[in-house]
């Protein structure tokens, strides 16, 4: 499946925010934003960091499968509603913006991630999920070709498969 690049990057940023430590400070959140190709306007202060971690808590339920996912995304969109427009800043190709370029970083991140999750839900809601390893609740966006991802990382998948192998080997004795 080919994701809309705007929706895919924004949905992946949403999952990264959900997976971030809720006690993350401004520096950690700035690093996370930059690691995901998001360019914040200046630094974050403690209040803005709290805004982002509170927003992450609101994004989190979208990664749980269920019939209410569309309603959750619509509520996020309603809280961030603005007029979408095409931007060409910084010599970049035309791309969509859902918040003014000069808005605060938390405001822009909220609009970006809500729109990204909306794109993902409209393209294929099964691409948003949580790791299937017992005890792991990591959120992910499945960008695999076949759309069959069940684990957040290869490490989690290997743990499940090794545990299953050991269980079967123990039963065979």
From TrEMBL:
It comes from the Bacteria. Pfam families: zf-CGNR. SUPFAM superfamilies: Jann2411-like (SSF160904). This is CGNR zinc finger domain-containing protein. Residues 127-168 form the Zinc finger CGNR domain.
């Amino acid at each position: 499946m080919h994701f809309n690049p705007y929706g895919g990057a924004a949905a992946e940023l949403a999952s990264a925010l959900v997976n971030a430590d809720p006690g993350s400070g401004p520096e950690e959140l700035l690093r996370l934003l930059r690691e995901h190709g998001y360019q914040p306007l200046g630094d974050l202060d403690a209040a803005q960091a709290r805004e982002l971690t509170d927003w992450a808590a609101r994004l989190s339920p979208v990664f749980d499968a269920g019939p209410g996912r569309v309603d959750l995304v619509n509520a996020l969109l309603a809280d961030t509603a603005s007029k979408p427009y095409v931007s060409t800043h910084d010599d970049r190709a035309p791309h969509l913006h859902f918040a003014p370029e000069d808005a605060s970083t938390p405001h822009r991140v909220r609009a970006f991630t809500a729109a990204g999750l909306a794109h993902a839900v409209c393209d294929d809601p099964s691409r948003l999920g949580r790791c299937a390893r017992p005890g792991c609740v990591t959120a992910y966006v499945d960008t695999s070709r076949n759309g069959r991802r069940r684990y957040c990382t290869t490490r989690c998948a290997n743990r499940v498969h090794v545990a299953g192998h050991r269980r079967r080997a123990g039963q065979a004795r």
